[in-house]
Amino acid sequence: MEIFEVGPCKDGFEMGFLIGQRFSMVIKSRLQRDLILQKQLLPFALSPHSKPLLTSLFETNMNKYPNYWDELRGTAQGSGTPFLEVYICIISMSVYILGAIMLLNFRKEILPFIPKADDTNDDCSDILVVSESMAVAAHNEDANVALVGHTYLIKGTLSNGVHFTAYTYAGELPSCAFGFNSHGLAYTLNSVPPSKHEIVAGGIGRNFISRDLLEAQNIDDALGRIYSSEASVGHSYNLIDINTRRILNVETASRNRYSVHEVGSVPFFHANMYLHLKEQDENSLSRQKRATMLPTGSRSDFLSLLGDNNATKYPIYMTGPLLHTLCTVVIDLDGKTISIIEGNPKEREASFVFPMS
């Protein structure tokens, strides 16, 4: 996994352009191999039925987050995959030609509107605790096989001097996975399955919300950014603040619905289903059940839990054929470090350790 340091830049377009330029080959490789993009998103975008949804998505997100929209434009241009391939969208009297990068960044907001779409793109697991002896957040980043070898770490510096580190999927905004910034604020993310009738078509995309969290000054600021986002579909956010020694699990749904759970001394396991808001799925139920059977008294127990692959159908640590655990991240609030483990966390040492202060 490569690390790229970028910034400070004069604007979002420049930052995106430099990232796209640096990882051009990785981005192009992902676009070629991502079957969800090739077989579902691209055909839908070419159909006449897609225009109202895509137009609304682009206009809403461009207006709310113009700097992040420019980051995506820059990423596309820098990587040599300009907006040429798919769809011409007229927004506010200007013509934007949509490329595959845009579709990837809005995949969760688009797939529910594609008949018979198969959205098995990511499933993640977290184990969290804040006790007198330990304050730790550990996270498995699970994704579709297309993402294997198509991720990188971005260490970005903003024009105001704030810097962030974000695990990034090729061609997407930093970060739909996990990241932290120089304010001592970190997050990990869990996808949750929405019901189609609850989705707000053309609302704010989750990639834009998580990019915004990289600039949050503290846990309350992060909450405010989530609450005001007007998201199209739901998500689960694990917010970690090393300065206040707090971890919050925030489950959200469309139409500004949310529920907040403060993590305490009882270890809290979260997969890809709502625990304190609503809904469940078989994969997450299996992992949730297995987690209750494993010890969680120490950091090594956490790593053993996230490395558990005993379940035949839905293991916590995934090795294919469709879903893979790309890496495991451990955020130590007392040690003020974030460690990234490549490979099974119960067997491997950290590949990277970053200070968070």
From TrEMBL:
Keywords: Membrane, Transmembrane, Transmembrane helix. Pfam families: AAT. Residues 133-346 form the Peptidase C45 hydrolase domain. It comes from the Eukaryota. The keyword Membrane applies. The chain crosses the membrane at residues 84-106. This is Peptidase C45 hydrolase domain-containing protein. It comes from Perilla frutescens var. hirtella (Perilla citriodora).
